[in-house]
Amino acid sequence: MGTRSKQECESHYYKCYIENPKTPMIEFAEQNGQDLNFPTPITHKICDDPPRPALDSQMYNEMAGYMAGRGDFNTEYDNYAEHDICRMEFLEDDDDVDTNLKLSVLRIYNHRLHERARRKRILARYGLINIRKAGFSLRRYHSLIGSHVIDGLVGFMQLVEPVSFDLFTESLLHEAELKRKIKALQEFREAGLTRFFSTKLYSHLKQRRNDRKNKPRHLDNVLDHIQNKTRQNWLHRHIIAETKGGVGGDGIVPSMSKKILVFTYSDFKTKILFTLLIERKAAPPLEIEELEKLPGYEKINSDERELCSQVRLRPQDYIDIKEMLINECQKLGQIRLSNARTLIKIDVNKTRKIFDYLVAEGLIGTPSIKKS
Fold it and tell me: Which of 8, 11, 188, 299 is 20 to 30 A from 366, alpha carbon to alpha carbon?
């Protein structure tokens, strides 16, 4: 021992333990077995309050190996602080510089122990051991106070008592609720309401109106952007694409020079009619110079070249279409325009012009005009 010599320790041992059979200790009264109290053993089970995560689980590692039975952590804050002093010894031949250096290291270690104890004390006082429960308790303030405010206040939690911090956050929540109620009363008064029983109907109608307003409507989107050039171009392309397959009952293709698009929007008893006139720009015919570079140009005559130029069709494609229609006419004896459109998957206007040209040349026959 640091305050007793070897001889003093030896004499004390012989005097108190060897020579004296009864040690100079406090004697307790003998108790029989009836007075003994055997407490109920605590069953260890995995739970959240107090937190007892399973060993080697993710939550166990995140909580630094917290042990609820001991109320301590398996991994301490600054866990390797003892490594700096584990091999330190005070020798008799140490000079003053070495002694002061070792004492400074011990003071640093003592300060690190104080910091470790302070952090444990904060965790216990503010209930931060259970991470999930602490997060849920603060999350209830996010809707009214704001997450940025609560997250900023967490850093100042250690400066006040736990009860004071809870009272402060509850006061902020109460203030936010009062502001919300005052704002609602101001809105009711601006709407002309003077009785509380009318506010319930007003809130219900307002919610229904907002739901209808937020409901997506494709027609409203088109009407809101009716003056937008980009929207007009989009409508133009889709209308032209939809009307390419339209044919009248008598087999006549409707005029494609213009298309009138009518929107009808009904809201209660109000009907609003919007008319949009969209002009179609006809594609220019192919130049003869461009047509000469395409395959099959030398296999067609001048009239067929003019037809290919107008319908913007390659000569070889025209030859294939002509042979297909002639073979179909020879097989059936006659051919209709509807049959030609079924066989040829191109623009109906191009099909009509090719069909009329072949009929005029006598290459194919229709029910009214049979091929001679």
Answer: 299
Q: Which of 140, 145, 139 has the alpha carbon at shortest distance from 171?
A: 145
Look up residue 265 and give its DSSP letter: E
Separation between Cα atoms, residue 371 and residue 334, nearest integer Å: 7
Of 353, 364, 357, residue with least CA distance to 328: 364
Counted residue by residue, the chain has a size of 372
Which residue, among 61, 63, 67, has the nearest Cα to 130 in the 3D structure?
63
- CA distances 148 to 127, 134, 139, 152, 157, Å, are 21, 17, 11, 6, 15
For the segment 2-28, the average pLDDT, to the nearest whole number, is: 78
Residues sharing a CB contact under 8 Å with residue 241, sequence separation 6 or more, in sequence order: none
DSSP string, 206-244: HHHHHHHHHS--HHHHHHHTTT-HHHHHHHHHHHHHHHT
Q: Give the pTM.
A: 0.41
